What does this fold into?
Amino acid sequence: MRPAAKTDTEDSRATSATGGVRGPPATQENLLLRLAVEHFLFEEAAHLDNWRLDEWLALFTEDARYVVPATDLPNGDPRRDLMLIDDDARRLRGRVARLKSRYAHREYPSSRTRRLISNVRLTRVEAHEVAVEASFVVYRSRAEAMAPYVGIYRYTLVRDNNNGFRIRHRRAELELERLSDHGAVSIIL
Amino acid sequence: MGRSFAFVDAPAPRYALSLTVNGCPMDLCELVIEDVEGGSFRVHRSVMTSSEIFTLEQERIFNRSWLYVGHASEVPRPGDFCRRMVAGRPLFMIHGRDGKVRIFINSCLHRGALVCRQDSGNAGSFVCFYHGWSYDDCGRLVGVPDPSGYVEDFGKTGRALIEPPLVDSYRGMYFANFGSDASSLADFLGEARELIDLTMDSAEILGGWEIIKGTAKYNIRANWKLLLENSADNYHFHTTHKTFADYNANLRRQAGLDRPRINNIDDSRGLVFRHGHVAMLTRAEGRTIANPSPLWSRQAIAATIKLRDELAERYGEARGHSMADHSRFLIVFPNLAFHDTQSGFKLRQWWPLAPDMMEVSQWELVPRRESESLAKYRLEGSLTFQGPGGFGTPDDIEALESCQIGFRAHELAWSDVSRGMRREARSDDELTARGFWRQWHAMIQGRAGAERVTDLPVARPPAPAQRAS
It folds into this structure.
């Protein structure tokens, strides 16, 4: 099993001793790269909000991982801690197949979702891989309830030759004390 | 005007209580009606929607029952503590430096502020942030700022944080009781202890169970009793959880195997115990202790079979194999699920916040010394079905919320819980739900328990041979 990509994790609660900027410098190359990453994340969000789940699934590498930690343990390690979701590629395919079925009762009829992605930051830039953080709010409306999922995404993106990306690691850490009106994480966060 | 229950032929109220349904007086004894001869068992849906019943449940059930608080493995070292809300009360459980685990009401003796303000951690003392009164890890008041304002020796007179009236533990599980006249925890658990023992003993070889970090915390917009009905119910499995069954079947098909023998009716049974505890046992593959799934690696399968043999050797064949082969879905009345299943071993507890809202917490237990590969299969099995992100739980939540919306139509006043009353109950019958409802109904009327917990025996039809002659 791939180790959890916690090495990319920056403790957002820690204050910087220097007051300086963390992460890669704001060179023109990095700023353009960030635009390309944002473009990718926005396209991904459009797939999810429009329930184009097969197209979304095609964005992942074969060694991919999709993780949602428990609300009381945002930095949890899937190898030893209880997560809400810890999908490898096989179970991710199963999740999509389930959500497309009319028997996924929690999502039939499907929720309406709208996701806002902001504060996109590159935290590590390498020749073949980019680590990214982004804040998110995913609003879900269904069955008389509207609940916002608030949190931070941590991605490891693999760069491909066409200035595009594939997702190797996707972690959605919720900044919620509990899933209150949400009840479950039945949509893709 | 008479009462407006459609399709209902309930007895007239013998005396009026304050409970009203659609403006009509309703007697508590009418809320659950069991007709043994007619084979019907009905629950009046007002028990899922009434705020009066909600209040009565607090007084007559939650204030008088043994309630799970936490597990010893959550506070292994001196100073370790964890916070809990139990029956609406803020509590914390702490391992004192004297080695004793205590449960305190989390409220300063002075003016009431919370003294423990983190969900978990390790501390030698707790200082109330409001005025600075401090307590040690055994709960004793050890400091009062500027004591000259009080009578002499004010802070030195053996004052300590308050504990619930009754606290006891069984196999590492700590319970509190806010009534003072309850029977012992061991007596309360009664026959259900055997199921708890089977699970607890089964991990002794592996160092015993511990709760791992990470809690599934979620709300369900439904009455708390619906989750009780759901948690030991085999009838809903193949309809509500079709996508989960399909996912598993698909994995097996890819591996060249038949459909799984999962929740097979013939290999399962329901049990009801005194005090309202109920259970479902199912023979299940995919238990790392100790009945392997054919989808696992050859090495993992061999290790699991070896463990199964060790259990049989240590505890005798019948008991050892029962530990290994059966998933145990036990519900400890009123609100604790003890589920040692093919989807891991978890404790799940839920509290009513309102007639139509409950708050659920779920903790995962693992053996301290399970091999890496089996631990991986264990967590995989757990997450695939269970919890808010699994392939099973969200659809349970949907079912319960769907029922709750259905209850808004008062015209349909009764739920039917009669399945299997007129036959030797199978695991997909509603024997377990009836066991719970009988206890609930007795307690809501102020009695300690139901006179009869199980269905009455069914008269067997004459044997075919006799009919032939």
Summary: The first helix of chain A runs from residue 28 to 49. Residues 68 and 85 of chain A are 5 Å apart (CA to CA).
